[in-house]
Amino acid sequence: MDKIIIEGGRPLHGTIKVSGAKNAALPLMAAAILAPGVHVLHNVPDLRDTRTMLKLLASFGIKWQWREADQALLLDATTIDNVEASYDLVKTMRASVLVLGPLLARMGRARVSLPGGCAIGARPIDFHIQGLARLGVVSTLESGYVEGSVDGRLKGNSIYFDIPSVTGTENLLMAAALAEGVTEIKNAAREPEIGNLIDMLTGMGARIDGRDTDCLVVRGVKKLRPAEATIIPDRIETGTYLIAAAATGGELTVTACNPGHLDALFEKLRTAGVEVTVGRNQISVCRRQPLKSVDIKTLPYPGFPTDLQAQIMALMCLGNGLSVITETIFENRFMHVAELRRMGANIKVDGHSAIVKGVGSLTGAPVMATDLRASASLVIAALAAQGETEISRVYHLDRGYDNLVGKLVGVGAVIRREAEQND
Ligand code: EPU
User: Which pLDDT belongs to residue 334?
Assistant: First the structure.
């Protein structure tokens, strides 16, 4: 296993080009299952999770090819000869559950390993299963696998989510696209990645109304055709680099991004005293003054994203007062707190809130990455800290950040990756 070593205390300066969004690439890749033929995806990030999704699709019989000329991923879903998503693959990536809806819609059957818990909480998939049951899927749980089947075509119905679920909404959209009749998804999630999926499905011939709202109406069609689609820029990667620049007191421009997806972050950064300049598809930040502490509460989109909670906490460790950070999406997403404390942070966890008392500066220390976004917060803390930080278990970062080390080196960070000897 590799580790990352960061010599901190250097402001970031320059420009970083953001990659395609992991959480958009995964559902769009899964959507290829729905229609035979060759789908073309642009701006697919090179990540451990997208590679896992490719392995999963290949295990169903889908062939893929990377077209160098225009950096496009080609997915040939002409033949599907297996409908089982094995535990080996699902256990490394919860988003594997995204194949459930499309497999059932196209093949009438699917056997998908139950993802189980993960570092940030229990994360059940009951909404997915209940929603699919409303469309006529009969499912059982056997030997750790969800086995679903449908008699004939799926049937449109009305579905209501108790809590807006991102992958739940995506799974049901994909299933409903091929169902007979109309499906209404109420209290649907509104994350931009869902809009990206709707655009791809529409390109495949699906009929979906209500994009960007919490009520989606899908008029099912008998057949879909392959599509060409472009993955939207990664708003979480964008936010991570902006926060890193603010933490180091630097000046950074992030390009190829969509500023419209990050209003909640800009509001907080500006309140904290960071200058934010928004262009059409680029954002610049600059910090010239001490950081003010601000309170943060994570919420479904367009609220402050849970996927940036750990990173903003690293920033707030450097604030001038008290910051209360409340996590409302996942019950156990404070794994980074103990590691940030090792770097001198003063944080107390009280239920769903972390009370962060700003300290003048952090100090480098050996720390351990525990999940994807927690790892990103440690990178930010390490970039701002005095001295050297060694972050172990960086495979978590590889799941969601395309070329993180290279991008940070390009803006002046002193950061390197090494193979860990005895892990
Ligand atoms: N929930 C249930 N039952 C379900 C589904 C969800 O109780 O069947 C609960 C969850 O436990 C959570 C809430 O509903 O408390 C919302 O979870 P959601 O289903 O929206 O999360 P997800 O779809 O599993 C996606 C992202 C996550 C991101 C969340 C929230 C993908 C592949 N993953 O997960 O991304 O944190 O939405 O925005 O899109 C990450 O990239 O680091 C990451 C964890």
Answer: 95
For residue 79, what is the domain's CATH number? 3.65.10.10
Per the structure, the count of domains in the chain is 2
Residue 174 shares a structural domain with residue 203: yes
Q: Check pocket membership of 124 for ligand 1, CB cut-off 6 A.
A: yes
Kindly state the tokens that stand for 186: 């109420």
Pair (359, 377) in one structural domain = yes
Which pLDDT score is estimated for 422?
A: 58
| Virtual torsion, Cα 131, 132, 134, 140, nearest 10 deg | -110
Q: Which of 118, 125, 163, 169 to mutate to test the pocket of ligand 1 (most atoms within 8 A of CB)?
A: 163
The more confident residue out of 102 and 395 is 102
Instruction: Give pLDDT, residue 360.
Output: 82
Q: Is 32 in the pocket of ligand 1 (CB under 6 A)?
A: no
Work out the pLDDT band at 117, boundaries 50, 70, 90.
Answer: low
**Integer Cα distance of 355 and 326 in angstroms:** 9
> Could you report the per-residue pLDDT of 76-103, keeping only the tens digit for each?
999 999 999 999 999 989 999 999 999 9
Q: Is 163 in the pocket of ligand 1 (CB under 6 A)?
A: yes
Residues of the domain holding 95: 22-230
If you average pLDDT over every residue of the chain, what do you get?
Answer: 96
Verify that 253 and 338 share a domain, yes or no.
Answer: yes
pLDDT over 80 (residue 423): no
The rounded distance, in Å, linking the Cα atoms of 298 and 306 is: 5
Q: What is the mean pLDDT of residues 109-129?
A: 84
135, 157 in Cβ contact below 8 A? yes
Sheet with strand 145-149: strands edge to edge: 84-85, 109-113, 145-149, 138-142
Closest CA to 325 of 313, 314, 342: 313
Pair 222, 333 in one domain: no
Amino acid identity for residue 350 in this structure? D
User: Last residue of some domain: 184, 207, 230?
Assistant: 230
DSSP secondary structure letter of residue 181: S
| Residues 181-205, mean pLDDT to the nearest whole number | 98
Please name the residue whose Cα sits nearest to atom 9 of ligand 1: 123
